[in-house]
Amino acid sequence: MNPNDSDSETITWLNYAIDDLKTAKLILSTTDDWIVPRNICYLCQQAVEKALKAIYVYENHRFHKIHDLDSLKNNLPDSWKNFGNTLQDLSQLSDWAIEGRYPGDWTPPNVNDATTAYTQAKEIVKEFISRSLSFQDKLLEKL
Length: 143
Description:
Elements: H1 3-28, H2 37-58, H3 69-74, H4 91-99, H5 111-131, H6 133-139
Helix pairs in contact: 1-2, 1-5, 2-4, 2-5
């Protein structure tokens, strides 16, 4: 894969992450009876997962097809080891990949959980875009 292909694929992953964030923000900003916290949390988990996988694509590294954000973050290439250090534990956000989509024996998220998930996801996506100078002009204004 030549560098331009990698950049193009990385931008595609990041655009998907941004789209998930925009949708989560839209739902979060609607009237109370339209806010569905579990959907917001799921979209935020997906945004972070796509942003982390974009790093692997950017660095031409393979990644496992998993939803565990801590595992994805902790196995980033060495040049990204300090990425996302403000969010040491992404396990709560990871949980929304499954729990947010299916009924089960778990406590559904509330609006505060959704707001926290959105804030965390936006921070991760924004950090990647900020660290990747070649993408800043194309993507940062979308957030």
